[in-house]
Hints:
heterodimer; A: 274 residues; alpha/beta; Rossmann fold; 6-stranded mixed β-sheet; 4-stranded antiparallel β-sheet; 9 helices; disordered C terminus; B: 454 residues; 2 domains; 10-stranded mixed β-sheet; 10 helices; disordered N terminus
Amino acid sequence: MMALLEIVDLHANAGDAEILRGVSLTVDAGEVHAIMGPNGSGKSTLAQVLAGHPAYRVTRGTVTFAGHDLLDMEPEERAHAGLFLAFQYPVEIPGVTNAYFLRTAYNAIRKARGLDELDPMDFLDLLEDRLRVVEWGPEIMERAVNAGFSGGEKKRNEILQMAVLEPTLAVLDETDSGLDIDALRIVAKGVNALRRPDRATVLVTHYQRLLNYIVPDRVHVLSGGRIVKSGGKELAHELEERGYEWLTGTGDAESVTAPAASYAATASPVPAAP
Amino acid sequence: MTSLAADVVTSRAGSRTLRGFAELATAVADAAGDPAWLADLRRAAVARFADVGLPGSKDEEWRFTPLQGLAALQFNAPGPAMPVAIVDLAPFLLGMPGWPLLVVVDGYVDRRLSRIGTLPPGATFGSLADAIAIGHPLVERHLGHHAPVDASAFTAVNAALVRDGAFVHVGAGVALQEPLHVLYVATDGAAGSIVAPRMLTVLDRGAQATVIETFVHLGHARGTPRPQLTDICAEIVLGESARLEHTRLQRESLATYHVGFTAVDQARASHYRSFALALGGRLSRHNLHARLGGANIETLLYGLYVARGEQLVDSHTAIFHDHPDCRSWEVYKGVLAERARGVFNGKVIVRPEAQRTDAKQTNRNLLLGDEARIDTKPQLEIFADDVKCTHGATVGKLDDQQRYYMRSRGIAGRAVEVLLITAFVAEVVAEITQPQVREALEALVYAEMNALIA
């Protein structure tokens, strides 16, 4: 069976600086992968290169997504093909309501796939259903996209968008950073609700604590623009105990546990959907 | 810096005139029937215009709005108006054909097309010519007193040429539910001529009303008709505690030069809320001046101007805080595409006695083309010490981060731009409080934004 996402020897620059220096990664349908690593390791760059951010230039390597040459596609074409990036810093769009934005995006993707657009009433039904995933009332839909949202609300809104757009591959870029325990639980719930045998999720995270809620199939450590170690879910626990420096060799004693260590201790894991 | 009296100081540019204006003015003056006060006003107007002529580029008030094109035209007497049918007007009725409607065709009220319906006792809505003819005391008292002939060269032109227009009077304590719609239609009959209607709106103490002014051009001729000039003057008088919501929609064609002057005089505790939409003619200029003539007045000015191609659209506002404890709030936004030019000038003048004034002015512009241009000039002149006055002007392009974010969600091509531009303008349109007017304007603006990107 063909992998859902196959990254081979990916090199990418931001300006003149080479950030990714040969990333190779295979994600199969049905899997959850976690990409961990210290600050500056290239995690967010990898996420943005997958989504097609124009600020990054790919200099070498290939990315195949569901049989498409991903690097040859525009950002919107990647979305049409089923890719979704939950932004680390979601963008505010004053003047556009969440409801209108989501319906426009949803219908743009349907249209690109040759499907009929959903009329506003049917879309409302869908929305109502997905709002339950993030435990939000309908009033959020009349607010402008991310405008004046707290950090936690913005992340939650990314999960709502993901729940509505139902991507085959969701890439979550540090969606867990800066979240309190309730928001973290809701994010995890959103990801777990989306788990299906034909879909996959890539979690980009600095900290281990999200992985208490979303159990990954594979864990990768990114350092210096390369994956330096891959393993099963137990690798995350090892990182938690030992930090990153034993892998990165930088002597960097950055902690893998969240600043408030009690999160991991008090939280009970949410089992992954079968 | 311009002095307090800047709006009444015009350069002596007598060599530049409106060609044909003198003949048109003579013809109007010779047509019998003016009461003495109006004949006097016309004489003063003709003398004033002969004195100042068209503003030139050295006139600070017209620095960015060159009138050479207008000065080159020869204006003649208008021909008969082209036939206008009710069905031609349907697209401009904001989806509310039942609202009291006064249709002014090439400067004259058309009784066949107008439908006033039944208004509550104490309210008048009709032809200005009729009000003059019956000697309505409010007309003599107010006409030419709020937008005097020396306010601008074009208020003089209007006073010299005006024959008809709209007259609105709402008596003390009367609250009108339905908006009054004045629809000014320019036809090809006025090609090569000057159309100069006028509006006088008087709200007595405690009266409430909503007034919409719409300017359209119904072109029948094939090809580009000869240019015409719309020179409109509106005088609005608000009594104590009166409330007016005023919507002005300028949506004429590339055949039109449009120059409008709206003068609002407010008494104590009155409330004036304006939304001015300018979609630009070939050249359009609107002056909106509000004089806050008592304490506890509220003046809210919202504006949106949109232009493309070679259009020039100019908004000048002036708010005169003459008394204490008043609040003025102003937000004007502009979207300029292709080679269009925009001009914004916002004066706020706070006199020494106007303590505790709360004034905020914002002008934000979106330039969609590298050759589009905006000249924006906030101008606060504050002579009182205990005030809260702020202003800000911004000029920008569409935000790349927002664009990328939308694309990453599958929204592509034109839809991204339309959504972002609509988002930019939504803030001012949302300020219209009359729900049907607001909804109609949202649809109109959305269609315009779509057309802008096409």
